[in-house]
Amino acid sequence: LFSGSRRARARPGLADDVSRASGRGDGGFARATSDGGDDAFANDPREDGDDGDAPCDAPRRVREVREGAASATPTRVWDEYVLRGNDLPQTEYACEGASRREYTRFLTWKTTCVPAVKAPFIKSFLECMPDLRYVFFTDKGIAKFLDEYAKESGIEGMDEAVRKMNSSRSNHGLKLAEMSRPLLLEKFGGLAFDLDVECKKSWRPILSEFEALMVLEPGDESRGGIYQHFDSSKPDVISPLLADFSSKIDVLSSVMAAGKPHSDFFRELAAFMARTVNDAHFQVEINPVVNIGPVFHYSFLEHWFAHKPPRAKGAAVASYLLHFANCSACLGVHHGGCTWCDENFEPKGDACVDIREILPGDKLTIMDG
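RE: above sequence
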């Protein structure tokens, strides 16, 4: 299960595998061809030999102070896999002759017109990770990706699992979006973040050290209690209580990332998903939080960590690292806001803005079925 994977070979640039998208004649954005395969959105362009015996400078580490009353939170059996600020690299490994990795962020929404309130959060990645590429999937694009992935992935039972989830009558679009996110990361690697995630620090350093990442929900399951435990006047100081203030039932499924395509972590997650959905007792119509979202992903983490893999193969990120703007170690802010709670919600007029007006055309690919 945890055998080392051969590093992806150099990939051609995105332009080599895309065709012009319809609807805009100036070439401002492009849609990847359906037969682009793994080459379309490669996230690790280094040759196999790049990381052999080349000398590396170890990254600088994040420094975080623990101060305050001891935490009363019981320790998980896999607590060593939960990353706090002191576990994070501040910079990437610097290896002589190694090429700089390229990453893609995957975004999903019903149509290309996204809620306007999310635009500043989307734009934050342009400054935070300036060389990031973006692939935007509408509901139609998600359906097409899942259909192709089910046929081509080689994951046993995936075709049946996709058909079963596609049969859902409630929260249909949300369930397919939740299903697609880890499968996109399995196939291509990269970052799969919801529209409401604001970037405060580049994810490049942490992805140079960990092949796969998921973030835990707060310990009170997003009810806001986490905010009272941080003193914004002391950005380097994290109390033991806050360091442990992570859920024991939910993963923040709107934030996950993979440092490379076909990582062992996301490959096993895809297989775990197929087995779970195809089980005779699986309830396709229940709340997606439970059957394909946060609760499902937490179950997978328990399954994965039970095998005691190397931490670099996959880790969980403590919840506080995605909740505070001026926390020194924090990677970003998950602003939340349940835009999908009403499955018929779709912003109109000034409440919505086209994704092509938010992200530059030379960095954006739209997948619209």
